[in-house]
Design brief:
Elements: E1 5-8, E2 10-15, E3 20-27, E4 34-37, E5 40-46, E6 49-56, E7 65-70, E8 73-78, E9 84-96, E10 99-108, E11 117-119, H1 121-124, E12 128-131, H2 151-154
Parallel strand pairs: 1-12, 3-11, 4-10
Antiparallel strand pairs: 2-3, 4-11, 5-6, 6-7, 8-9, 9-10
């Protein structure tokens, strides 16, 4: 078995397909799925397929990003407080510790949480392990100016 990459309980991640160069994430092996905070989302169809548009601010001074992605799934998610909500899932590339891999992320309102992203165990499987006594083991990723196409440009 290959050696897994050790992560701290919080890390800097990138979501390049969504135009996010860096984002603080809480690494939570107790959570099944990963969640990304969005300030707002809307649904539409493109070429007969369901898509989601969303708006988010990835962090301090980063401004607002507006993006779109095909809907991968819609399913019920139970949060740590036991509340069940229906959430949209997208598939996107996660960049972390020199590894790029496609993961599923649900779009949710994480307002009031310390981290705009929660990285769950399905995103960690087979590649990463967590040392809860450490944090930011892989440094701060460089900022990216990449942005998603606007809704106007994809139609």
């Amino acid at each position: 078995m290959a050696t897994k990459i050790v992560l701290g309980w919080r890390e800097w991640v990138g979501l390049p397909d969504l135009g996010i160069g860096r984002l603080r994430a809480k690494v939570d092996s107790g959570a099944r799925s990963s969640a990304l905070h969005v300030d707002g989302q809307w649904h539409f169809h493109e070429r007969g397929e369901p898509w989601v548009g969303f708006r988010l601010s990835p962090g301090h001074g980063a401004g607002m990003i507006e993006g779109v992605a095909p809907v991968f799934d819609v399913r019920e998610v139970t949060d740590s407080g036991g509340h069940c909500t229906r959430r949209v899932f997208v598939r996107t590339t996660l960049s972390l510790a020199g590894v790029d891999r496609v993961i599923e992320i649900n779009l949710s309102d994480r307002r009031g949480m310390l981290f705009p992203m929660l990285l769950g165990r399905t995103a960690l499987a087979r590649v990463f392990t967590v040392d809860p006594a450490r944090s930011f083991l892989h440094g701060r990723l460089p900022s990216s100016t990449a942005r998603l196409p606007s809704l106007k440009s994809i139609r």
